[in-house]
Specification:
heterodimer, A: alpha/beta, TIM Barrel, B: TIM Barrel, eight-stranded parallel β-barrel, two-stranded antiparallel ribbon
């Protein structure tokens, strides 16, 4: 069974362009909150925010008995790297990105964590003719290769996302990400499949998981839901119950079973702990529905490809 | 066609999205000076209450910079009063405060000599199914609007629809719902502020929205901008994505005789607001010039001709290629 983690950023200050919903919290407060969430096994840490004092961080994780799902490397920083970090036109900025990512690799390894994830949010464009896509891919390949070579045992995951804050991010879909990883041939470079990002990129999450796994690049999974129009970071299953069941069924086939699910769910105006209690409990319920699927029956139904039999079977599980 | 361009003062201060902060915070004095520095901008839309704590000061600043106050934009979203809704909130207290805020905004507008108050009711929306009782919420929304416009007839309240943000869906999310509210309330001082980007984000054709609103005499103000049309309200420079749709919108505005302000919500990001707004005005003026070159009547004839769909493109492209 996969363990469940909360990304620490979602336990702190929450804002969007109109509202500031929750005030910033200290690392100590965030980890204490994570401990209070029923069913939470650990956290995904954020670099650099959570790493001001690695010794204190380790002590807090021990104190609250929280595991580490991954370290999330922030590739965008307010006030710098405005036009991208790994794909900046400035060689100096690209080198800063490589150096900082190497530091994150080292700090993660010191905590016994060998998975870094990064969402290249600010790598991309708003307008047409804003950037040279050919060069952007070359820059990304060079910087990521340089960083990944630093720590071959650690896996670096690109968390693809269609847009925001850029009107179009460079890594927008599972296909683009898989293709890039295969093209570069960097063995320890893969993808974080964020289900919400897949849904609003018009993907079927189970299909994206299969494609990434076939490419040997399904490194990590983030769970959340949305209405298919935007990355609202909602409670899993609020909109796409059966897509989640199909995803979980497919992940089991692909062998993603003794790993972590990390949640980026935006509590907004609601209580954060109550929100994540619901997140944990609903995820386990969606897994329980998946448990009820008779694998032989489903495999036969999948071979038949007849929705008039498959969909009634799914509803018979409720 | 002479256009009147105004700027939304909020976009000349600090902006933020979920991930980044852009531009320094600027006091009203700096914002007004920056707006006045942009060639072509003659008007300003001020936010109430943020920009208007001191009316005399705001008026003097605008006078000193020869800027006309085009509209007062009343903020009906905040986490203290309107966390769970404003005009359509379940809480009578929140609805009452939202109505009071709008009435204050109308009084402020009158004191400033402006007859337009605009508001985008984005506190009223929902994320999840079963989060809002639509039956009561829609009644509240209409009742609140009705009570606000009854406050004074010399000020016109313009509703700005937006499909989503900060909620996954806002109640007032498309042009059809604005038409519905205006029809229900049936007050002469109620109308619409059409944000062209919101119309694109709502998967509409803004020219059609212009025509629909104008058919009921409801179009009172515009927010110009553009976006990628896939839902994101990026507040980009007009015409940078939907060039043809923007031409169609400008033509339609001329067709219905729109003589109001061309306001703008343009996200400055790292470009800076003055440069972004200047580019927006240049784009609108150049697109307008293209329509003038083809000739308004000629274009109308082409559009109305049966099976003539592609003719305007041919002619406009000819003119574009021939442009100096």
């Amino acid at each position: 069974m996969n363990k469940l983690a909360i990304i620490t950023a979602f336990l702190g200050g929450l804002r969007n362009r109109y509202m500031v919903y929750q005030d910033a919290r200290t690392l100590s407060e965030k980890l204490a909150m994570a401990r209070q969430v029923i069913g939470c096994d650990g956290v995904e840490l954020c670099y650099p925010d959570d790493f001001e004092s690695p010794a204190d961080l380790r002590a807090l994780l021990d104190q609250h008995q929280l595991g580490i799902a991954a370290v999330n490397f922030r590739s965008r920083r307010t006030g710098r790297w405005w036009r991208g970090s790994m794909t900046s036109e400035s060689a100096t900025e690209r080198q800063e990105f490589v150096d900082d990512l190497r530091r994150a690799f080292d700090l993660a390894a010191e905590l016994g964590c060998f998975r870094l994830t990064t969402c290249p949010l600010n790598e991309g464009v708003d307008g047409i003719f804003e950037a040279d896509y050919v060069r952007l891919y070359d820059y990304a390949a060079e910087t990521l290769a340089a960083a990944c070579a630093h720590h071959p045992k650690t896996r670096l995951c690109i968390e693809y996302k269609k847009n925001d804050p850029r009107a179009r991010c460079l890594f927008g879909t599972a296909g683009e990400t898989a293709s890039f990883c295969l093209w570069t041939g960097i063995a320890n470079l893969g993808a974080t499949l964020d289900i919400g990002h897949a849904i609003y990129a018009d993907e079927r999450p189970a299909q994206s998981a299969a494609l990434l796994a076939k490419s040997g690049r399904l490194f990590y999974v983030h769970l959340n839901d949305n209405d298919g129009r935007w990355d609202w970071d909602m409670i899993p299953g609020a909109y796409h119950i059966w897509e989640f069941v199909e995803l979980f069924y497919t992940l089991r086939k692909l062998g993603y079973t003794e790993d972590w699910y990390a949640f980026d769910v935006f509590a907004k105006e609601h209580d954060t702990i109550e929100t994540f209690n619901a997140v944990m409990s609903l995820t386990r319920k969606l897994e329980a529905i998946t448990d009820r699927i008779d694998v032989n029956m489903m495999e036969a139904l999948l071979a038949e490809r007849n929705p008039s039999r498959t969909i009634p079977y799914l509803y018979s599980l409720l | 066609m002479n256009r009147k361009f105004s700027a939304n003062a909020s976009f000349f201060g600090q902006r933020q999205d979920r991930f980044n902060q852009y531009q320094p915070a600027r006091p009203l004095e700096e914002k007004i000076a920056l707006i006045a520095s942009v060639e072509g901008l003659t008007g300003v839309e001020l936010k109430y209450p943020a920009d208007l704590h001191d009316l005399d000061h705001a008026r003097t600043l605008c006078d000193d910079h020869e800027l006309i106050i085009a509209a007062v934009n009343v903020d009906t979203k905040d986490v203290t009063r309107f966390l769970h809704g404003a005009l359509a909130a379940q809480s009578a207290g929140a609805r009452s405060q939202a109505a009071a805020r709008l009435r204050e905004g109308m009084d402020v507008a009158a004191a400033l000599g402006v007859n337009i108050v605009t508001t985008c009711p984005i506190a009223d929306g929902y994320d999840y199914p079963f989060q809002v009782d639509f039956v009561t919420a829609w009644g509240y929304l209409i009742d609140t609007v009705r009570s606000v416009v009854a406050h004074r007839s010399d000020i016109r309240l313009l509703l700005e629809y937006q499909p989503h943000e900060p909620h996954a869906r806002n109640l007032l999310d498309n042009v059809g719902k604005v038409l519905h509210v205006c029809a229900e309330v049936a007050a002469p001082n109620l109308g619409a502020n059409l944000d062209i980007g919101h119309s694109f984000a709502a998967r509409e054709s803004p020219a059609e929205a212009v025509a629909l609103l104008a058919s009921k005499g409801l179009l009172g103000y515009l927010h110009t901008n553009d976006n990628t049309g896939d839902g994101g309200d990026w507040d980009m420079v007009s015409g940078t994505v939907h060039f043809w749709h923007w031409l169609e919108t400008l033509y339609t505005l001329d067709r219905i005789g729109y003589d109001g302000w061309f306001g703008a919500d343009i996200m400055p990001k790292h470009i800076g607001p003055a440069e972004a707004y200047a580019a927006n005005i240049r784009m609108i003026e150049r697109m307008s010039a293209l329509i003038e070159r083809i000739g308004f009547d000629t274009l109308t004839g082409m559009i109305q001709r049966h099976n003539g769909t592609l003719t305007p493109f041919d002619r406009l492209l000819d003119l574009l290629v021939a442009a100096p």
